[in-house]
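Regression test attached.
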Amino acid sequence: MLMSAHTVAARFEIPYRACLDADGNPIGPLPSFAQDAQLLRDMYRMMVRARAFDAKAVNLQRTGKLGTYPSCLGQEATHVGVGAAMDPEDVLFTVYREIGTKFWRGVDMYRILLYWGGDERGTLYERCPQDFPFCVPIGSQMPQAAGAALAMQIRGERRCALAFVGDGGTSQGAFYEAINFAGARSLPLVCVIVNNRWAISVPVERQTAAQTLAQKAIAAGIPALQIDGNDVLVVRETVGEALERARSGGGPSVIEALTYRIADHTTSDDASRYRTSEEVQEAWAREPVVRLGRYLRARRLWDDAAEETLKRECSDEIEAAVRRYLATPKQSTDAMFDYLMAEPPASLQLQREQARRYAATRG
Amino acid sequence: MLMSAHTVAARFEIPYRACLDADGNPIGPLPSFAQDAQLLRDMYRMMVRARAFDAKAVNLQRTGKLGTYPSCLGQEATHVGVGAAMDPEDVLFTVYREIGTKFWRGVDMYRILLYWGGDERGTLYERCPQDFPFCVPIGSQMPQAAGAALAMQIRGERRCALAFVGDGGTSQGAFYEAINFAGARSLPLVCVIVNNRWAISVPVERQTAAQTLAQKAIAAGIPALQIDGNDVLVVRETVGEALERARSGGGPSVIEALTYRIADHTTSDDASRYRTSEEVQEAWAREPVVRLGRYLRARRLWDDAAEETLKRECSDEIEAAVRRYLATPKQSTDAMFDYLMAEPPASLQLQREQARRYAATRG
Amino acid sequence: MAKITMVEAINMAHAWEMEHDPSVVVLGEDVGINGGVFRATVGLQQRFGATRVQDTPLAEGLIAGTAIGLAAQGIRPVAEIQFMGFIYPALDQIASHMARLRNRTRGRLTCPLVLRMPHGGGIHAPEHHSESLEALLCHHPGLRVVCPSSPARAYGLLLAAIRDPDPVIFLEPVRLYRFIRQDVEDDGRALPIDSCFVLREGSDVTIVTWGAMTVETLKAAEQIAAEGVSCEVIDVASLAPIDFETILDSVVKTGRLLIVHEAPRNCAVGAEIAATVSEQALYDLLGPIRRVTGYDTVMPLYRLEYDYIPSPARIVDGIRSTLAE
Amino acid sequence: MAKITMVEAINMAHAWEMEHDPSVVVLGEDVGINGGVFRATVGLQQRFGATRVQDTPLAEGLIAGTAIGLAAQGIRPVAEIQFMGFIYPALDQIASHMARLRNRTRGRLTCPLVLRMPHGGGIHAPEHHSESLEALLCHHPGLRVVCPSSPARAYGLLLAAIRDPDPVIFLEPVRLYRFIRQDVEDDGRALPIDSCFVLREGSDVTIVTWGAMTVETLKAAEQIAAEGVSCEVIDVASLAPIDFETILDSVVKTGRLLIVHEAPRNCAVGAEIAATVSEQALYDLLGPIRRVTGYDTVMPLYRLEYDYIPSPARIVDGIRSTLAE
Ligand SMILES: Cc1ncc(C[n+]2csc(CCOP(=O)(O)OP(=O)(O)O)c2C)c(N)n1
Ligand SMILES: Cc1ncc(C[n+]2csc(CCOP(=O)(O)OP(=O)(O)O)c2C)c(N)n1
Ligand SMILES: [Mg+2]
Ligand SMILES: [Mg+2]
């Protein structure tokens, strides 16, 4: 116990990091992977791909071919940067917007369409079979991610769990419980807080008095960082460092990525009810895709021809996915029962037959 | 958005404060109320009273006259200091151990006995009718305290809600949710974290990696302080300041009081299973009652005669409360039904009569 | 008097009560400037100010706990949970405190408040947005659970709920929010809670149901009327405590009972109704009580949701099987 | 073979399975060096190490969520919730995820785990320590809910629960923890879940019950046997899914059914049993099904708890009233 009358028990600092400015100019030394032109181009491609898919999904919803859909417009750098930082063996826990990360990990556009099209088969991730599906109950993915990290620790594996959470999500107790536990056990867990300024109509200033969301990690006694989440270089760099530290036993960390939800909350939302168009326009000036494109072009790693090709590839891929999605018949009613338990109880068998009968009569 | 590559987004400090050392010697300038001999004596009396009652309660449990009981031994300074800092108009939310605070606010020993004796009438606080009863589900008192603070804010009152929470309680999401909300709205809420080092058998180091519990407040963007919770002067001082700031619109704060649970967790617990007797002995050397007594005697505000009188008064009061408690017949079975709703549903009437019938036959 | 939808009626009840009782305060996620994701609280913040209509942080446990603290302090909170599927984080506050505060303090502290939330499926919403969890709440003594099925009943029952001296869970069937328009007088008149509403009189079979299933049930009743079967349709409306008198009277008259609800069958409110009726009116029953309910599986994502939710065809078959023996 | 208590049998089952399945990991509040507040996990940390027997921070939602993450990763968690009254903060994880993970991922991710917890009252415990909340869990499709009533059944059912490919909620009746000693062979033999146990054969009336109420019920059966009434007592044991075959067979034989449970009556598991039996065996019933249950009020603090919990006298009266008509 400290013995002097007035002293300081603890001191903390939340560092801030960025690599590129809003126009794509380097504002300091770049991470070494910036020498890897292939990686830079891949990240750019994935961001463009996510944005193109996103626009199509919104469009499908508007024309009645998809359910409610949460756009990722403006957040592509955070999502793709995290994907690029992860190892395939790591395990991903998302909320619902992070298609850039899912794409990077090999999830088909088709699956994403199925999920938002009201079909559970949208969670069948062939190439990242341990990743969790989208998690709609806000914050609830966090303790599960801590559990996955604990499994890795118990088995002594060099892997990491990565969990996204939104600015709104940081108000849920489950978020704090999980990062606190991760700290107490030094779990291999990296939490990326996507601060896109809004939780539906509630601005982050109303969500919390904390001047940064990164500082929430201080409550858990774990290191944290605030970064420019529209700068894919700093996302890839800082998340990569955090993952590597976690995998090698260095414990968890929290990264707050500052970005902006340019779109409505979902296709059911009308953001003009609660925020100004000026604010959205300002956000456009800082958005991540053009920024990275400028940087790549300045370094002569990208040009109009490449852009042209990419656009065509994206649109071909998207069209193919949409065609496949629209051609997919809905599941049989059996699917409601077949996956509930390994061995469904006898009573369910009767209900299964009943459902099948009514489906047949409905045609 | 910050523009330089590596900078600092935020800095924090957790101050530590104490007035008396473990032997009761001042270790710096004392608060001005230290001139108020009456107040000092009252706080001492209340701490002794709490300790004497506590010992009796444990004894009653051992002899089968009381249910499971959670001793407050060693934590009297935190509990009494908070009581002394509060205005009668403030509203108190406790966990289950804080009898020193309840006593200060006018709750009878008799009520405390009734409650731990398995009788709901133990929550009838005549002199602080807005205070909440003990709250057993750990952490759940916190959002309620925020709600009470919000009511005060809505009505523009100069009052404050004060909520205790344990070190274990800081792991529950409800704790974070409440302080975060209090910060976001600048609510008149003071939260006192009683860090008594243990949550049953789990030491605080296993509960969290945070080096102080006060720093949990940084997550909520609100000021926090760590204090010596066995020093009633610093408890009274810092909690008083926090309450006054909150009442006058200055917003919430968190105070971590460092103390020690000298007793078993409850009478059902055997702490020797999980901690050393050396640790407990060390805690005895820092315990709060002797410490304040020494300080008072050094200032000639207390002597053996006063101690003698106090002991007698306490034991008289305790004996009277115990007699009244033991003489209290159990509630009629009607009580199970009469308080459920303002107007109990018809179906309950039948059950009420049924319960009465069986009680009669049981005799 | 204007023809309004259920969600407008709910909004109107809020406004009436806020106008007449200054202690009423609205809180929840997005209830302020956005007026709630279904617009149930639209315009209230503009009219009554940001103190009386407050957006909360995103934490349902916090919302419920805050409402308890407010209520115990004499404010009348009307709190919104954005969808019933998100009630779980609030259950500790609801069950351990809200339902018990009066009882555990022997009446010293009380908890008059309303917790409103959208209920059920059928609007092609995302995962976790279509749950029917009334049984969880009804099982807890100390709570009232109310579920209106028309604009007028929504208006009158919400007023009653806000004025009730005990906590009321107010379930709003999502697919009825804008289903019909009805004349609703804005007269501040509450409807009785703890009472069923007979929606259709009949003599051959009693059908009890609530919420959005009243619509499917009335359709089925209409359909089978063509075959000469006369159904009495009862909207239970108050799911806890239930007005068994009305239900039993009807069963005594018809001798047959069908229960229809959207929630999965096992341990649901329909089980309690079946158990109580068969206990108290066994000899009046001409055949077994039947239940047409959601299946005992997870509410599916939306492409199959109408294969899950009882359809008029299933209800008609339910009626037939009730009459078969 | 040693005569052991139920809590010792539970401990023994843990040890057997941890010994034979290295993926089994125990977690919860105070389960480590302290061995749990009831000593169910005593000695396990010493024997299997602090990695396989872990104290968690004080957060039930965290415990349940962590268990899900572990299970999906191939660890077999056996997690303890210290008392059933503290399950509420875990319900979001249980209902929104644990019960659904297999279904929502079409079988890609599964959730084989056990969540153990003390159940019910009768030991003069403090507030919130005596709850019987099985109905909340049984209502959720995708969960198994098991409640043993003897040391041997606790041993065999816990082994079955740990080995089950789906999440199992394992309810341990507190007042049976040390109620009797029984020979239990430590042979790693699991008992079937999804099956009732017939504790006493009889011909006049079927009584179904579970957990600690089996003791009161057997007492009542014994008592009334002196009057020549022959009771068949069935321990439901698996509360979800329920083995209705055994129950219905018995009801067909006796023609009468009494349901006994400690939880409040409204919307409880007893309601489902009554509803299902009266639906499927109406014409075999010679009189109304009766329920003897906890009252529809909050479990009182301990001085009145035995006025709340069904007593043998109440059960005897319940039997009589079942036979009366
Ligand atoms: C537990 C819970 N409560 C409420 C909701 C409804 N809801 C869906 S998204 C959302 C806002 C989320 O905001 P944030 O965490 O910042 O994520 P963002 O949408 O900005 O990506 C709300 C309130 C929910 N899905 N889960
Ligand atoms: C939600 C909940 N979970 C578990 C318990 C059981 N329990 C009672 S006290 C306690 C430890 C509390 O520790 P702490 O918050 O440090 O308070 P202290 O007992 O040290 O005063 C536990 C786990 C509980 N009462 N509530
Ligand atoms: Mg957001
Ligand atoms: Mg403690």
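Expected vs. actual: identical. Residues B 166-168, 196, 198-199, 261 surround magnesium ion (ligand 4) (CB under 6 Å).
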